[in-house]
Amino acid sequence: MTVTPFPAKLLQDRKSLHELFVACQATARRKEHAQVVSLSLAIPAVDPLAVLERLRQPEHLHFYWEQRSQQIAIAATEPVLQLQIDGPQRFTQAQRFICTSLVDTVTAGALDLPCAGPHFFCSFTFFDETQRETRLFPAATVFLPRWQVARVRDQAVLVANLLVDAQTNLVQLTDEVWRQWQQLRSPQTNGRGTLQSAKLSSPVAADYPVLTETERFTTAVKNILQDIEAQGLQKLVLAHTLDVTVPEPPPLGHALATLRDRYPDCYVFSVSNGKGQAFMGASPERLIELCDRNLVTDALAGSAPRGQNLTEDTHLGTQLLGNPKDNHEHQVVLDFIQNCLWELGIQSQVSSPPHLLQLPNIQHLRTLVTAKIPQNLHLLEILEALHPTPAVAGAPQKIAQQQIRKHETFERHLYAAPIGWVDHQGNGEFTVGIRSALIDGCLTRLYAGAGIVAGSDPQRELAEIQLKLHTLLDALV
Fold it and tell me: Which residue among 235, 408, 411, 464 is the active-site one?
């Protein structure tokens, strides 16, 4: 990726900032092409979620990402560059868009800080085509934000990405960036506080949430089990939805604050389409993480509830580790991941035997897979190969996707799909949009899925769906 650096020491005051823009405008005139100026500026350790609540506008795309246990949070809004496309070439086109955008990008400022430099925020729907009448999100959305605020442990950075062409008013641009930087550096800034969890009362104002079409779900599970017995399938992930209507749209910021408090080991995320809808969740599943060409991915499959006390909890965890059905489901996912990497020429390693990932209301079998990635392989190429894994679709992959269309009566949109970011150095991280909800005004649609394999029990799978739905139900209602 081509990025032109600019000496950081020149960004000491408003005058030096203006001089940087003047130099970039001269380049834009010479090339007859707009330049992206990406400034990374140190700020106090603000709460990115609080900053996002102050900056975001309904008509702008936004992106939020936090994993509290790793002490990382990123907020981004107001696209400077964006790509929204449909079709089977979406990952390739997204990669090309990122690489092309970086050719005309100048970076400056505190690039040594964590999460500094330009980041491209991405969301991909589960299927590469969605029905036009129900489409809320394009099959691929990639955007470079005007404002990005990130905090990693006790360090924070403001990344301002500005488009400079021959007509740009540089005085106005300098004033805007300088003002935003000073506001975030000020102890009195509104964005410095920490956004608190919602103080939710009993959900008397909402329609009581009841899981409907349960018989349809269990019947579908029985039909899927017949296909598995006939060896047409190894596994299918069948999802269910729960619609909740409230008098007023739920406060997104407080819902995200609640999720990060309750699920510190999950990826808490939110993405919007700029048309009034947002997709948010608290996902336990890392699809891919790439840092300095070192890859980590999760095989996450097999579930059990948590116990009411230590003895019961230990018993349930031990049962999960030894359950043949759950271990088979887990192995299908692990084999798929390793085979995908092998087909890309990547030698992967299993870092440990299956172990428990324990969340407040549910526990999963998890195995970490690691690998060293060659320089010529882009993160989005690996992402395309992995999505969708059997953890969210099934196996074989193509047949499973056809069966999902057959049995599910709703559009998945971003549910069970890749959500994450890629930076200017090719690093990035993606989670899978599970334990998630679509916020559409006063209507909230929650999603959850269960993996059906040989030995699955329809009633147990339904109970697993209900258990997973509580991840977001308790935070939103």
Answer: 235
The verdict on 143 and 291 lying in the same domain is no
In this structure, are strands 286-291 and 428-432 parallel, antiparallel, or unpaired?
A: antiparallel
Q: Is residue 397 part of a domain?
A: yes
CA–CA dist 265, 282 (Å, integer): 9
Residue 208 lies in a domain: no
- Verify that 315 and 418 share a domain, yes or no: yes
Q: Which of 53, 66, 285, 411 is catalytic?
A: 285
Pair (143, 221) in one structural domain: no
Low-confidence ranges of the chain (pLDDT < 70): 1-11, 131-133, 187-210, 477
Considering the domain boundaries, does residue 203 fall inside one?
Answer: no
| 221 lies in some domain | yes
Number of structural domains found in the chain? 2
pTM metric for this prediction = 0.92
Let me know if 325 is a catalytic residue. Answer: no
Q: 267 with 369, same domain?
A: yes
- Model pLDDT, residue 203: 37
The reply to whether 268 and 393 lie within a common domain is: yes
Half-sphere exposure at residue 69, Cβ-oriented, CA atoms within 13 angstroms: 11
- The Cα 21–Cα 25 span in angstroms is 6
From residue 390, how far is each of 4, 297, 373, 386, 452 by CA, in Å? 41, 14, 22, 9, 10
Q: 162 and 247: one domain?
A: no
Give pLDDT tens digits for 297-344: 999 988 899 999 999 999 999 999 999 999 999 999 999 999 999 999
Q: Given the structure tokens 């090719």, which residue do they identify?
A: 426
199 belongs to the catalytic site: no
Q: Could you tell me whether strands 348-350 and 362-372 are parallel, antiparallel, or unpaired per DSSP bridges?
A: antiparallel
Indicate whether 136 and 222 sit together in one domain: no
Q: What pLDDT score does 10 carry?
A: 54
Range of the domain at 237: 214-476
